[in-house]
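anyone seen this seq b4? input:
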Amino acid sequence: MRLLLDSDVFCKLGVGKLLDDTLVVLGAGIGDCGRLPALPYMLRKGRLPKTYGAEACVGLVAVAKKMKPIPAPQATWLDRLTSVQAIDAGEAQLFALAAQDSLIVATGDKRALLALKDIDGYPDALAGRIVVLEAILLALCDRLRHAEVRRRLGSLTTSDTTLKVCFSASNPDPRTGLESYYRSLVDEVRPLRLWERP
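predicted toks r here
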């Protein structure tokens, strides 16, 4: 396992048909990816189908099953996160395993990152290995050109604030907005150091 994907990032990239290109950018194959054990179930029931559409989520179940369900992380890392309200149980497992095994983790949970920056050991253990959605989209704009990324994101741009602002029809180049959001987050989460595209 090389790369861990949180459920929302997986859904956004999957629904937008951007997952394969993202894996190329991050140097991983689908079999190198880890996900929460409950993700296939979560794609059929609950919040994810309501957010991203039931048909789209059911279509992602087969992709999720190609990824490895993550093992339970060691208590030494997980215990530091369990009482932090801003970090949900799934994110806690992903961050703990990434810190423990020196893995890359892709997340869209900014609230969790703001909490993670102050937790002993995590900024050093995850330095340069937390990939946020804005950084992924910037790398994809470089790789595919922003018009293609905008086309693939389609309806997602109406439900996600960052995507709505950056990929609105009135914005000729979404990279400016994405870069602004990314740089702001870099400052906010210090001393945690985020992944930067090459």
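Residues 81 and 143 are 35 Å apart (CA to CA). The mean pLDDT is 96. kinda curious what u guys think
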